[in-house]
Amino acid sequence: MAVSLLVAAQHVAVCYVLIHRLGLGFLGAAFASSWSNLLSVALLAAWVALAGQGQAVWGRPSREALAGWRQFARLAYASAGEPWAHAWVLPCKEGMRRGGRPPGLLSLPARAAWYHS
């Protein structure tokens, strides 16, 4: 709980700095989110290590732990590709149907305007 509160508090400050002070816009929000997730993992790992609970929490590496990774990877790759399909393939299909240019040939702001028109 303490780690979550600390990360949430710093996330607001980091978002403000990256988005407004540095003018990074949506990229600043993405960087802030990535930073906050990394900080959360690091603080939680440090908490477990300092409490001496590493063995109880993480255990030892074993072949049993890797047993279902092939099925997991197939599912993970499919779910990672699905948003890409919605973001690129479907607008291209719709645009070509209407006689427009596919978004790959447009700049990012033009692509956003084209997609939402």
3D structure, described in words:
The protein has 2 domains: 1-52; 83-117, no CATH class. Helix 1 packs antiparallel against helix 2. The mean pLDDT is 80. The protein is an all-alpha fold. The longest helix has 29 residues, at 69-97. 74% of the residues lie in helices and 0% in strands. The chain starts with a helix and ends with a helix. The chain is flat and about 65 Å long.
List keywords for this structure.
single chain; 117 residues; mainly alpha; 2 domains; 74% helix
Number of domain modules = 2
Order of helices and strands: HHHHH
Strand content: under 5%
Number of strands: 0
| Average pLDDT rating | 80
Radius of gyration: 21 Å
Name the poorly predicted regions: none
* SSE class: mainly alpha
**How many strands, what sense, and barrel or not for the largest sheet?**
none
**What distance separates the N and C termini?**
44 Å
Helical segment tally?
5
| Share of residues in helices | over 70%
Identify the overall geometry: flat
Short description:
By secondary structure, the chain is mainly alpha-helical. It has helices at 2-21, 26-50, 54-58, 69-97, 108-115.
